UniProtKB/TrEMBL annotation:
It comes from Marinobacter santoriniensis NKSG1. Pfam families: SecB. GO terms for molecular function: unfolded protein binding. It is found in: Cytoplasm. Its main location: cytoplasm. This is Protein-export protein SecB. InterPro entries: SecB, SecB-like_sf.
């Protein structure tokens, strides 16, 4: 019976594992360069969202994933506010490698982090005395797939240039 329990324990160690260990704000900034005059403008903002993700291995099975968002809101040509946040998380990832690991760190983890970043952005915008800003959901799977496709095209383009020079 002890052999069966030991074998089961070995099976569990070989199973892929994923766990969220911590979520935190790594960096957050808010600027309203044209206040208080911007409050006198009619509120018809143009909102621009830039986002980026990165990850770093912090130990054998732990990765820090950072979702960086910059929201620039303008009224006409005047900047109403700029919010920048780096929402981060530490994730335990064991037994997942190659393309699956890339997908996990490049799409799945940012999907987990996004609601936290969105809430922080909304809170800081409200504290700046602006109307609530609830960012629309983001399809990180599609963004990750586009990034992979772009890298593949660049690699193929580089190979074509290399063959032309020889």
């Amino acid at each position: 019976m002890a052999e069966n329990q030991q074998a089961a324990g070995n099976d569990n160690q070989n199973q892929p594992q994923f766990a969220l260990q911590r979520i935190y704000v790594k960096d957050l900034s808010f600027e309203s360069p044209n206040s208080p005059l911007v409050f006198q403008e009619q509120w018809q903002p143009q909102v621009n969202l830039d986002l980026n993700t990165s990850h770093e291995k912090v130990s054998d099975n732990q990765y820090e994933v950072v979702l960086s968002l910059t929201v620039t809101t303008k009224i006409g040509d005047k900047v109403a506010y700029i919010v920048e946040i780096q929402q981060a998380g530490v994730f335990l990832v064991h037994g997942i490698e190659g393309p699956q690991l890339g997908q996990m760190l490049g799409a799945y983890c940012p999907t987990i982090l996004f609601p936290y970043a969105r809430e922080s952005i909304d809170n800081v915008v409200n504290k700046g005395s602006f109307p609530a800003l609830m960012l629309a959901p983001v399809n990180f799977d599609a963004i990750y797939a586009q990034a992979l496709q772009r890298k593949q095209q660049e690699a193929e383009g580089g190979a074509e240039e290399e063959s032309k020079t020889h």
